[in-house]
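Hi R.,

Here are the chain sequences for the assembly we discussed:
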Amino acid sequence: MKKRPLIFVTNDDGVEAPGIEALIKVMRELGDVKVVAPLHPMSGTGHAVTAREPLRLKLLEKIDGFEKYACTGTPVDCVKLGEQFVIKGKPDLMVSGINHGSNSAVNIVYSGTMAAALESAIGGVPSIGFSLLDYSHDADFSHCDAFIKKITEKVLSDGLPKDICLNVNIPAINGSEIKGIKVCRQARSRWVEDYELRVDPAQKEYFWLRGTFELLEDHPETDEWALRNNYVSVVPVHFDLTAHHFLEHFKHWENHA
Amino acid sequence: MKKRPLIFVTNDDGVEAPGIEALIKVMRELGDVKVVAPLHPMSGTGHAVTAREPLRLKLLEKIDGFEKYACTGTPVDCVKLGEQFVIKGKPDLMVSGINHGSNSAVNIVYSGTMAAALESAIGGVPSIGFSLLDYSHDADFSHCDAFIKKITEKVLSDGLPKDICLNVNIPAINGSEIKGIKVCRQARSRWVEDYELRVDPAQKEYFWLRGTFELLEDHPETDEWALRNNYVSVVPVHFDLTAHHFLEHFKHWENHA
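And here is the predicted structure of the full complex:
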């Protein structure tokens, strides 16, 4: 009999978020599951790692083929600490999410969900980040199951190329309306900042972030186009930030040293 | 007379670090300078952004052509908040550093220094992150000046291609030994985690991160090779994490939806 794969699950909305529960449910159909997820919500923490503070792990649940821990750190801490003390090695697969909210386009750089997937990929583990385009706590994840299962089974059977992980975003609509899966590139976009200036009871100023997402292109090759047209977007992602196509552009600088 | 450029300076080691003082010194020779840097050390915070907490700004110094503020947030917060309330628009250039320690190879994904540069680039501002390969507080930055000045002047005169910023690392040796500038790609590497398990006075376990940097290649095209051979490494960096060379590889998934 084929051994059940060991699947490591984390997220950035915290161990109690409904999104991770939905992901755990699908993963337990596919393999043995170990969860190490942040004790507190950690969205927007990007690839932050905790080095100046100690970390703690708290066992929440342990039954045959399933363990769940809360970690006081970031999603990247969960991956690092989880591999050493919970997995005690490398899992067969790491999945992160389901994020409450989009991680398409430029959002990937701020995303704790995708940082966990990238961190796993750096360590050589096939990994996938899943996000639903609905920020609410009570988001309906029911239509995600079939897509998550299909994509995960494909990765478990075929593996992923070296140093590549997947960024999967799912439209927030009823399953019957989703047209299918589209393999995409990350769209060009940015957040336009708009902090709210407020005054505290001691008459001192403080600033609170709000922002507007600005899409700078809507090309059919992009994840944003796919999502707006009711496709599940799959972006293959790597952690080499080198702009290889501009290495030549700067080559003449070497002569000016 | 040509207008002096407006240069925005930040870092991740905190506004009181000697590295940012060294960078400010060089920048004040080249233009008007506004500094918004973290109140506390923030290295390893990656692209974290503060959304659930308010931020504060504290004016530390203001003289003709120079302003310095501390911000309670991360390096990315400093860029976002600084542009809105200190610069009140976009600067001509953003520089980040000088980081106490290397940001070569995979370290770029954990680096607050480079996250600030990437954040500026997302907003369309030419930006450069500078790092010295010496983690100590008392690091000698004196040999960095000439290289930083040369690279900054080049960017001020020529600009940078759209969506590209620079990751500059400087060996920790005497200036006379540095062979020059090398334009490189990011080396393949990773951190191998090794948390120390300790027990607190209440007999509860906690974990403290230490780690070993593992270089997985030493190709002459890489930043690690350049640095080990006493060159200043310049890596052009972008924020599109799409693995474009693997889009075709996954294309057949679309038929399985």
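The mean pLDDT of chain A is 94. The first strand of chain A starts at residue 6 and ends at 10.

Let me know if anything looks off.

Best,
T.
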